[in-house]
Amino acid sequence: MKRTWMILFMVCITVSSLFAAPRVYKLKMATTWGPTLSPLIDAAQNMAQLAEELSQGQLKIQIDTANKHKAPLGILDMVKGGQYDLGHTASYYWKGKDINTLPFTSMPFGLTAPEQYAWFYHGGGLELMQKVYARHNVLSFPGGSTGVQMGGWFRKEINSLDDLQGLKMRIPGFAGEIMARLGVQVTNIAPGELYMALETNAIDALEWVGPSMDIKMGFHKIAPFYYTGWHEPASEMQFLINQRVYKKLPEHLQKVLIAAIRLAAYDMYIQNYDMNAEAWQEMKKEYPNIKVETFSKPIMDAMKKANQDLVREMTSKNPLLKEVLDSQKAYIKKVREWSMMSDYLYLKDNLQ
User: Fold this and answer.
1) 139 exposed, middle or buried (CB, 10 Å; 0-12, 13-18, 19+)?
2) Among 67, 176, 253, 265, which is least packed, fewest CB within 10 Å?
3) Long-range own/partner contacts, residues 187-191 (CB < 8 A, 24 or more apart)
């Protein structure tokens, strides 16, 4: 009798386990962005929603925006250290910690957004990204592109290299180093202070993103010369995942997480494309004095030379950076002819 009860007990345990609710994994994600900075914050929110839906509720991701954790430029350290499981940010913010992270956002005169996505997923870029971030004990994936970023808002027209001498401009990162070599007084000012700095002549020009995000800042009300881009042709955000956390997830949830990341990233790119188009229509209607300009050939040539000099200096000291940039250079050589044959010539020959 005792043995019969034992068998029945084991059968009940086995049957109940078959019908038990699947385990829910609760993860925390920190973002560099505030809660209203669309479309950047949208990518993080969409990814979390997709992950929960695709996993049928097994993955639940809580998002802490920058106004909560107070460390917008500390995302890599927080994910690496385990304070957060995930992060949404941009790779070039870590160039001071690891110069090899720089190219995974965008490089001056580099890949366009479609070209860069192709490099990531079909040209070895993603493998190189994991190689760079493995030393930080995190995984990194493309997290949404702003596409070509505009070259900036200027109070006065820039006709020659002489016009750049002593010009006070907010332009951070690698592009700032290039402009500094051309005689620009480069500064980096917090986003919330940019409009006031431009209005009070503390700066003469600034670079932000593009119409979709610039329109909220109001720069076009002060600086009417809007220059086309050169420095960030495919600014890609990133999703970071703590390696230890990732390895503890069941294989099917690892795949769900990566799928949600990939979907949300591309969705941000097309969302921002649409937002740029709408914002530009509004800008030019309300402020018809805006003049879209392109830097002259002598200025562009000087920028390209400064870029080449800086890249040569950096890669001479960093073999891994050289490997990444050589991979991008080789991919440009492969893909750019098609880009020119397809998109460029189509647009050039079909101007409305």
Assistant:
1) buried
2) 67
3) 191/217
- Determine whether the annotation assigns residue 170 to a binding site: yes
Q: What is the C-alpha to C-alpha distance for residues 51 and 26, in angstroms, rounded to an integer? A: 11
Q: State the Cα angle at 214 between 211 and 220, rounded to 5°.
A: 95
Residues 26-64 as b or e (16 or more Cβ within 10 Å = b): ebbbbbbbeeebbbbbbbbbbbbebbbebbeebbebebb
Give CATH for domain 23-146+234-275.
3.40.190.170
The annotation status of 208 as a binding-site residue, yes or no, is yes
Question: What is the per-residue pLDDT across 210-241, written as a single tens digit (0 to 9) for each?
Answer: 999 999 999 999 999 999 999 999 999 999 99
**Domain residue limits, the chain:** 23-146+234-275
Q: Is 232 annotated as a binding residue?
A: yes
Residue ranges of E strands in 32-95: 59-64, 86-90
Higher pLDDT, 170 or 12: 170
Q: Per the annotation, does 177 bind a ligand?
A: no
How far, in whole angstroms, is CA 86 from its chain's centroid?
A: 15
Task: Fill in the DSSP letter of residue 272.
Answer: H
Tokens of residue 109, six digits: 């005169």
